[in-house]
């Protein structure tokens, strides 16, 4: 006769409920140091202006990039309506070409202390260039549940111990004898085995949570 670990299922269920209280943490809680890979996530800085000395701003931008040729460490162009461009250098500088400053998604990026500070309203102006040392970027505690909360490493470590027990429940469900069980036992195994599997699926897709710091505009 099939051995149903009823008490262990209930105990594990309650443990998972409690553990899930710490499932997510803010990105900056586990990445407190701003790098050239994630400076566009939840940061605050005032860019120094670079005045345009050319016929158009894009020529000036091209000159800057030529000046740092061979020393650019990262480069990015925004997609969509925004035409913002960025690059970082081996000296630890960040350069930005954009027509909007102030609140930029999860960041507060002013230029010479100026910029639109209303998050729901984007006021565009002429394309301008600014630069700032990467070391000047500070943490800005912006919170968007869909973008800036990532899996807590402590949660990942603990929930990973569920693998063997979850596999055991899934095997019970595949056993032909499972169909002869009382509905209460079938529901117990099926529901919570599936729930534990879902939690482990989040661990398997951990790489996704590491890349939530998408580029701003």
What would you say this structure looks like, in words?
This protein is an alpha+beta fold. The chain has 2 domains: 6-23 and 152-210; 33-139, no CATH class. The protein is 35% helix and 22% strand. It is built from 7 helices and 10 strands. The protein has helices at residues 6-19, 27-30, 57-67, 153-159, 163-174, 183-204, 206-210; strands at residues 24-26, 43-50, 72-77, 85-89, 93-98, 102-104, 107-111, 128-133, 138-139, 149-151. Strands 2, 3, 4, 5, 6, 7, 8 and 9 form an 8-stranded mixed sheet that branches. A two-stranded antiparallel ribbon has the order 1-10. Helix 1 (6-19) packs parallel to helix 6 (183-204) and helix 5 crosses helix 6 (183-204). Residues 208-215 have low confidence and may be disordered.
């Amino acid at each position: 006769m099939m051995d149903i670990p009823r008490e262990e299922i209930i105990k594990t269920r309650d443990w998972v409920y409690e553990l899930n209280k710490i499932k997510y943490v803010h990105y900056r809680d586990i990445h407190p140091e701003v790098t050239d890979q994630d400076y566009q996530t939840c940061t605050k800085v005032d860019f120094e202006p670079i005045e345009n000395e050319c016929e158009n701003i894009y020529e000036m931008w091209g000159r800057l990039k030529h000046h740092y040729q061979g020393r650019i460490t990262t480069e990015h162009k925004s997609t969509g309506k925004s035409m913002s461009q960025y690059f970082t250098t081996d000296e630890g500088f960040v350069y930005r070409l954009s027509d909007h400053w102030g609140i930029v998604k999860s960041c507060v990026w002013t230029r010479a202390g100026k910029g639109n500070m209303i998050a729901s309203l984007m006021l565009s102006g002429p394309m301008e260039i600014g630069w700032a040392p990467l070391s000047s970027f500070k943490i800005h505690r912006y919170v968007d549940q869909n973008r800036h909360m990532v899996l807590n490493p402590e949660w990942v470590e603990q929930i990973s111990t569920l693998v063997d027990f979850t596999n055991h429940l899934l095997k019970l469900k595949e056993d032909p004898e499972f169909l002869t069980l009382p509905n209460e036992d079938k529901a117990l195994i099926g529901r919570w085995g599936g729930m534990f599997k879902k939690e482990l699926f989040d661990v398997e897709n951990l790489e996704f949570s590491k890349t939530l710091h998408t580029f701003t505009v």
